[in-house]
Write a structure and sequence with these properties.
Distance between the termini of chain B: 57 Å
Order of helices and strands of chain B: HHEEHHHHHHH
Helix content of chain A: over 70%
Oligomer: heterodimer
Number of helices of chain B: 9
Strand content of chain B: under 5%
Radius of gyration of chain B: 28 Å
Largest sheet of chain A: none
Number of domains of chain A: 1
Number of strands of chain B: 2
Radius of gyration of chain A: 18 Å
Structural class of chain B: mainly alpha
Largest sheet of chain B: 2 strands, antiparallel
Order of helices and strands of chain A: HHHHHHHH
Largest interface: A-B, 21 and 27 residues
Shape of chain A: globular
Strand order of the largest sheet of chain B: 1-2
Shape of chain B: elongated
Structural class of chain A: mainly alpha
Distance between the termini of chain A: 29 Å
Strand content of chain A: under 5%
Chain lengths: 224, 283
């Protein structure tokens, strides 16, 4: 492993270790995401047929709202006790810093998806028709969410209004990811007759662009 | 570069200048002429079906396109200027680029909002709906509008101006990535849009219709230029006021302390250090 990847892994490991010890995502974000699924069930009058039809969209709305909390948590970690200043002074490359943070957020988003898929199976009575598509689309969309979330988390970091500003900035950027991921899950869960793999291809392009832009722009955001 | 307005901040209470007033008058005249051309002189879009003989087409709704299409193109232009200026912010790091980016984003967002409104008004009689969720171009334009709404929200936060400029530049550069999607969506997702493909390149529209459309582009361009100029000047004055405030605060701080008093206190401290402790200065 080169020094660059080692630095990135160091940051990811640090974020994940903090999460493993504090368990904020496990104890707060995961219950919140399940709660969102339950509320959708109440709102749609607990009709299984309706829930199955709209399950992909409801799933991804729940993922995005929960990911928002995970991103805010990730950005807040570096504000505590001047950690951001210490990281800047440490000589770590901003790109490695970005990739490390994004990797940690990615792991958390994937964990959220695993829990929420379980929620869909149990609460919404959905059946998985194409497991491979489900996994690939979930992972690719997870990369896009993590990359955009890490970039905008760093961007809103340090602002007094970051809790309200971050959703306004991040959710429009993730809207195309929501559309693509919902269509891919429509196919994987058999909710609609669409070509899920072509939507997954579009998701991959979005994930690549957001990762490259995020890694390139991160330096301008953390340098002072 | 409009900096003269900034230097004259204390003496002038307007962002206008003789040339910008002339531009304003020409713009107003162009808007009036476009109104007459689009809503009075051009014909409605009425065609006769070759076999049934029935009338079909967009009828009077087509008039809205003389405003809608030029506004859309000028939205791209304004956001394009914002993107270039944002690169300038990250590379050159001067306030001029930042003020330009902010002005272009604000004016572009007004234009983008008008594009959505005029499109919706046009869509009601032609598509039989105010809003079509399945239309890719409509969705990508809405996303673009929302992204720049976020940009303007970021601009309203209180932050260090240099840091805010860099953050806003990054947001703008991510947001403009949506413009190619908006522009090419009609071709890329042909079966998921109600928008028609561009016909200007093929010159299917003719005579007064074509002239009115191009006049619409000129008029929208003039409105954009006039608004950009004045928004830039307002931004530059804000920048000047900020600099002036900092300079005034420094001067006030200096004035609070008499120079002779400073020298006397420094001298007393030096003398005190020289005689203190074990008699070794600086020990």
């Amino acid at each position: 492993m080169g020094p660059f990847l080692r630095d990135a892994w160091l940051v990811a490991e640090r974020d994940l270790r903090i999460e493993a010890r504090s368990r904020v995502v496990l104890h707060q974000v995961v219950p919140f995401s399940v709660l969102v699924l339950v509320l959708f069930g109440f709102a749609l009058d607990a009709d299984h047929r309706t829930l199955r039809t709209f399950a992909p969209g409801l799933f991804w709305v729940a993922v995005l709202l929960s990911a928002l909390l995970a991103v805010q948590r990730s950005a807040a970690l570096d504000r505590a006790d001047g950690t951001d200043t210490a990281l800047r002074m440490s000589g770590l490359s901003p790109v490695a810093l970005f990739l490390g943070r994004a990797t940690a957020v990615f792991v958390q988003v994937v964990a959220l998806q695993v829990v929420l898929v379980g929620g869909l199976l149990v609460l919404y009575d959905v059946a998985v028709e194409d497991p491979l598509l489900l996994v690939v689309a979930g992972l690719v969309a997870g990369v896009a969410v993590a990359a955009a979330g890490t970039l905008y988390g760093a961007l809103a970091s340090g602002l007094g209004v970051r809790e309200t500003l971050l959703p306004i900035l991040l959710l429009p950027v993730l809207a195309p990811v929501l559309i693509g991921a919902t269509r891919a899950f429509d196919d994987a869960l058999g909710a609609a007759a669409v070509d899920g793999w072509s939507w997954t291809g579009l998701l991959a392009v979005a994930a690549l662009v957001l990762t490259v832009v995020g890694a390139s722009a991160h330096g301008a955001l953390v340098e002072d | 570069m409009g900096t003269t307005t900034g230097t004259a901040a204390g003496t002038r209470d307007t962002t206008g200048s003789p040339r910008s007033r002339l531009l304003g008058v020409v713009t107003l005249l162009a808007v009036a002429v476009l109104g007459v051309l689009a809503f009075v002189l051009t014909d409605p879009d009425v065609r006769i079906h070759p076999t049934t003989g029935e009338e079909f087409g967009q009828f009077d709704a087509v008039r809205m396109l003389y405003v809608h299409v030029p506004l859309a193109v000028m939205t791209y232009l304004a956001y394009g200027i914002c993107a270039v200026a944002s690169v300038g912010v990250l590379v050159k790091r001067t306030p001029w680029w930042d003020v330009t980016a902010h002005a272009a984003a604000e004016v572009g967002t007004v234009f983008c909002g008008l594009v959505l409104v005029t499109g919706s008004i046009w869509g009601r009689p032609v598509w039989n709906t105010w809003w079509e969720w399945g239309d890719v171009r409509l969705m990508t334009t809405l996303v673009l509008f929302l992204m720049f709404t976020g940009y303007l929200a970021l601009r309203r936060t209180t932050d260090d101006p240099r840091r805010q400029a860099r953050r806003a530049a990054v947001v703008a550069l991510v947001a403009v990535l949506d413009i190619p999607l908006v522009n090419r969506s009609v071709e890329w997702w042909e079966n998921r849009t109600l928008h028609q493909r561009s016909t200007i390149g093929e010159l299917k529209i003719e005579d007064l219709t074509l002239f009115t459309l191009f006049f619409g582009f000129v008029t929208a361009g003039l409105v954009l230029a006039w608004l950009l100029l004045h928004r830039f000047r307002v931004g530059w004055l804000e920048q000047a006021a900020l600099d002036h405030g900092v300079a005034a605060a420094i001067a006030e701080r200096h004035a609070e302390t008499d120079d002779a008093e400073v020298l006397r206190s420094v001298g007393e401290r030096a003398a005190g250090e020289g005689t203190s402790g074990d008699g070794e200065p600086g020990s």
